[in-house]
Amino acid sequence: MLSEKGAPAPKSAMASGRKWRHFKRQARHLFKKVAGGVLIAIGMVFFIVGIPFALAPFHLGLPFVVIGLIMVLRNAMWARRQFVHLKRRHPNLVMPVRKLLRRKPQVASVFWQQTLKLERFFLRSRHVLGGLRRRYLRRPKPVSVSL
């Protein structure tokens, strides 16, 4: 650093500049942490508020759930890890959420695919209840009486 007259600045001026930069870096880091925590809290509120409304007719809470997920997943590493774990373990269940979390989500296509999936689920109800029938609703075996 140079002083006003062009001579090299004293060492104390350079040290104070470093301290100021370090202070600014620490303040920026603290601000990011606090802002991230606030965004996580707001995202969780959106998510919790959206769940009951998403289960209601017309799925009015679905945008709240998606916005809450976006806010939490962008700012919380633990949530991101959990989401990746769920994505690997249950890819078919998480796929619609992943499609809605993209930058340009295809909402109509996700909605249509989920409608078809529900329709297939209800139309093939005998397959869904098949396991229950096999376990609990078996016909009793005929008892052979031998004399």
Descriptive account of the structure:
- By secondary structure, the protein is mostly helical.
- The protein has one domain (19-126).
- Helices cover 75% and strands 0% of the residues.
- It is built from 7 helices and no strands.
- It has helices at 11-55, 62-75, 77-89, 91-100, 107-123, 125-128, 130-136.
- It is elongated and about 120 Å long.
Briefly, what is this?
By secondary structure, the protein is an all-alpha fold. It has helices at 11-55, 62-75, 77-89, 91-100, 107-123, 125-128, 130-136.
Portion of residues in beta strands equals under 5%
Name the shape in a single word. Answer: elongated
The strand count comes to 0
The main β sheet shows up as: none
Q: State the low-pLDDT regions, or none.
A: none
As a percent range, the share of helical residues equals over 70%
Radius of gyration: 29 Å
Number of domains: 1
Total number of helical segments?
Answer: 7
Distance between the termini: 113 Å
Structural class, from secondary structure content? mainly alpha
How do the helices and strands follow one another from N- to C-terminus? HHHHHHH
Q: What's the average pLDDT?
A: 80
How is the topology of this model organized?
Elements: H1 11-55, H2 62-75, H3 77-89, H4 91-100, H5 107-123, H6 125-128, H7 130-136
Helix pairs in contact: 1-2, 2-3, 3-4
Notable characteristics:
147 residues; mainly alpha
